Structures are given as structure tokens and as C-alpha cells.
């Protein structure tokens, strides 16, 4: 009996440890989405608050159809009105006769407005369709905000009770939110920068993403090739599922999906991944070597806006030239500089188009060699890890790598 109790205790400790570790990302240890409520004024039965959502994740983005923020009211609060966002469901407001609230749900679900709404329904940083860029590629687009007027809530910092059970739903999933905590009131500076005001009350919620919870199966795979070898190491078969007639469509002569086909949307491949990243070693010289990265979209109905690609390779600290893509070094640990963030340039290739002739983007890299520690052999020239939009790509098995000779090119 004691052994069963001990085993149960150890199992519980293991599950707790794993669930906590699942939300930790070694390449982005400080990444999170922070939601902050600033009460800017009190009303006779509640308050008006500005809610801001900051994506502090370096390479995870929130794509269309965008985020959905939810919570549970602590008392019997209602939402009188909103600017910059809206509640999906109004709920039962039958007890109100004249002035009908925007939402009477005890657990409202809030979505962002679309960019083309009238100006009187907008506030600063709202109305992006719920799309959030990552902090790494565009900090100005990694912020979303809306204003909410809350009633039946109390009108002082002593009578207001914080909402609880916050949830954040986004494409790909995997977000878990902690409890709301009261913090020091936010300071606001007027546009002329001559006056400072402060929030009446501020609380904060932090949401983290767990890859373990996010994707039940991979969505990306990596293939490899090199200049000295005519063969290609393809994505592993069934990397993201296995091919059958019910979950893919064959390529048409013009690369388009037949009009009668609504689902599925993936092009039939052996790996069945929506995204394929290909790494090709182009050249090997005494002082430098070069590689080409190609990202191909096999989804016929989805464009990737503000996409991100993260590559881990020990020589990326010596990247001297990156064409086409924007490039930023990620240094989660100051002593290690082997991870790079790549993303598209605005109005050029920041949108990865759906499958077809234009459904790919590519970049050439030039990297300086360190003769003491670098040798392009035994798979060294290929990435250690690759992430697309925050999702890890399935890697080929090491024994299948197209090994490179340990000498420089003759040109």
C-alpha cells in the first residue's frame, strides 16, 4: 500500500514538473503575452478600462483569424460598451429594460475588430483582425488594445474584484494564462510630453505558450541538399501525417485548386506538411561558405502573413550577408549566439503566398569560417533546429544527411 502511495506521489510530481516545463522555450525563455488592464476612470456602477495585449514572444505570431480573449467575472459585472473590440455573444440581458449592455455573459469572449471599422469604433492599436506580430520582427505590430466600460462592478479600488480564469485562444493554441495580479498603476504621458497622469488601478495577466499543448502533430519539415551531392535528403515520410485521398489534393497543371474542392487544402506530398523548409549548401571556400534557405507553402487556401523562421546553427554568429530576408540574432543566453530569426521584408516577401508558382520565399546566406572549430563534414553544415512561426520542423535522421567533404572548393 505504501509503495502505491509513493508511486502515485512521484507520478504527480512528474506530471507537475512536465506541465510546468512544457511552457518553457529554451530559445525564447522570456517570451509571453502580457495582458494589462488600466482603469482610466470610475463610473457610478463600475469603471472604464483600457486593455492592452503585448506579444513579447520573439518569434511566435498570432495569425488570422486572430486572438480570442476570455475571462470569468468575479461578481455580476456586465459590459456596457466596447471600443476597438467586441464580445462574441451578448448573453441574456432580459433584466435590463431601456439601456441594454453590450454583453451580459458571465464569461465573455472578446475578439478584435477588423481594420475597416468606422473611426468612432477605434482606439489606438486596435482593429487588426486579432493578428499580432512577434516582438522579434515588428515590435510596433506586436501590440493590440481595446477599451471596455464595465458595470455592476464597484467604483473604487476597494470594491472592484479582479476577473479570473483568463483564457487566450489563438491559431495553433497552446496558451495558458495565469491569475490577474494588481501591479503599480501605469503612468501616461500626454502627446505634448508636458503632463503625466496615472491609471486609477492596474492589473496584469501573463499568458505563455506550450508547444506540447499547441500542436497535436507537426506542421513543418526540413529537407537538405548540398553542392557536392546531386541527391536531396527529403522531409521524412509522414512527417505531418500520411497521404490519402481524403486529406490532400493533387497538383493541377496551373498550380490551382479545382473550384469544386473545398476541403482538403493541402497539396499531396509524401510528408504531408503545410510548410517545407529546404536548406541547401551552395559553396565551401577556405574563409567562408554559403547556404540557401527556401520556404515552400503547400497549403492552397492560406497565406502566411508576417511569417518567422528560426534556425539554430553554431556558425550563425558569423553570418556576414543575408539576402532577401530580414535577419536578427537571437541570444536567449548571452554566452551563446547560435540562433537567428529570419522574417520577410515589408511589402516584398513578408507574405508567404498559398501553394502555387508564388508559394515560396528564399534567401542566400554567407557565413565566415573559423578554421579552428569549423569543418563542413558529418552534417555540421546543416541546422540543429528549425522553427516556422514558432512550430518546430521535423528533421531528417542524421544518418541520411548529405555529408560534405572536409576541404574548400577549388574555385
TrEMBL record:
Q: Does the keyword Glycoprotein apply?
A: yes
Protein topology in the membrane: Lipid-anchor; GPI-anchor
* Cell location: Cell membrane
Does this entry carry the keyword Transport?
no
The positions making up the signal sequence are 1-23
The superkingdom of the source organism is Eukaryota
- List UniProt keywords, sorted A-Z: Glycoprotein, GPI-anchor, Lipoprotein, Membrane, Signal
Q: Name one GO biological process term.
A: plant-type cell wall cellulose biosynthetic process
A cellular component term from Gene Ontology for this protein is: plasma membrane
Its chief place of residence is membrane
Which intervals hold domain COBRA C-terminal?
Answer: 219-259, 260-402
Protein family per UniProt: Belongs to the COBRA family.
By what name is this protein known?
Answer: COBRA-like protein
Species this chain originates from: Capsicum baccatum (Peruvian pepper)
Q: What taxonomic ancestry is recorded?
A: Eukaryota, Viridiplantae, Streptophyta, Embryophyta, Tracheophyta
Amino acid at each position: 500500500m505504501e509503495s502505491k502511495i509513493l508511486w502515485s506521489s512521484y507520478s504527480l510530481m512528474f506530471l507537475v514538473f512536465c506541465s510546468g516545463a512544457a511552457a518553457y522555450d529554451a530559445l525564447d525563455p522570456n517570451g509571453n503575452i502580457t495582458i494589462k488592464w488600466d482603469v482610466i476612470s470610475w463610473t457610478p456602477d463600475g469603471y472604464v478600462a483600457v486593455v492592452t495585449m503585448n506579444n513579447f514572444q520573439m518569434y511566435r505570431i498570432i495569425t488570422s483569424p486572430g486572438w480570442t480573449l476570455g475571462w470569468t467575472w468575479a461578481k455580476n459585472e456586465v459590459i456596457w460598451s466596447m471600443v476597438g473590440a467586441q464580445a462574441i455573444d451578448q448573453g441574456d440581458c432580459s433584466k435590463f429594460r431601456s439601456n441594454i449592455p453590450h454583453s451580459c455573459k458571465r464569461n465573455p469572449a472578446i475578439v478584435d475588430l477588423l481594420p475597416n471599422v468606422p473611426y468612432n469604433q477605434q482606439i489606438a492599436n486596435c482593429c487588426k483582425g486579432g493578428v499580432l506580430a512577434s516582438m522579434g520582427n515588428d515590435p510596433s505590430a506586436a501590440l493590440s488594445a481595446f477599451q471596455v466600460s464595465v458595470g455592476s462592478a464597484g467604483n473604487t479600488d476597494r470594491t472592484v474584484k479582479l476577473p479570473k480564469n483568463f483564457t487566450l485562444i489563438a491559431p495553433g493554441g497552446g496558451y495558458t494564462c495565469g491569475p490577474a495580479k494588481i501591479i503599480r498603476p501605469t503612468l501616461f504621458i500626454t502627446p505634448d510630453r508636458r503632463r503625466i497622469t496615472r491609471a486609477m488601478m492596474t492589473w496584469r495577466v501573463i499568458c505563455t505558450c506550450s508547444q506540447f499543448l499547441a500542436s497535436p502533430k507537426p506542421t513543418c519539415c526540413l529537407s537538405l541538399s548540398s553542392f557536392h551531392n546531386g541527391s536531396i535528403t527529403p522531409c521524412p515520410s509522414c512527417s505531418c501525417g500520411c497521404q490519402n485521398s481524403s486529406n490532400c489534393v493533387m497538383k493541377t497543371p496551373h498550380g490551382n485548386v479545382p473550384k469544386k474542392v473545398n476541403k482538403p487544402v493541402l497539396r499531396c506530398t509524401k510528408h504531408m506538411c503545410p510548410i517545407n523548409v529546404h536548406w541547401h549548401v551552395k559553396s565551401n571556400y577556405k574563409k567562408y561558405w554559403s547556404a540557401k534557405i527556401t520556404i515552400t507553402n503547400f497549403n492552397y487556401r492560406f497565406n502566411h502573413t508576417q511569417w518567422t523562421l528560426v534556425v539554430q546553427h553554431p556558425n550563425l554568429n558569423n553570418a556576414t550577408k543575408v539576402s532577401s530576408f530580414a535577419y536578427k540574432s537571437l541570444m536567449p543566453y548571452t554566452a551563446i549566439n547560435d540562433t537567428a530569426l529570419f522574417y520577410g521584408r515589408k511589402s516584398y516577401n513578408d507574405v508567404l503566398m498559398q501553394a502555387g508558382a508564388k508559394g515560396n520565399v528564399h534567401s542566400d546566406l554567407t557565413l565566415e569560417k573559423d578554421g579552428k572549430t569549423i569543418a563542413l563534414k558529418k552534417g555540421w553544415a546543416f541546422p540543429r533546429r528549425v522553427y516556422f512561426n514558432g512550430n518546430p520542423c521535423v528533421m531528417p535522421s542524421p544518418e541520411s544527411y548529405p555529408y560534405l567533404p572536409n576541404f574548400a572548393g577549388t574555385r
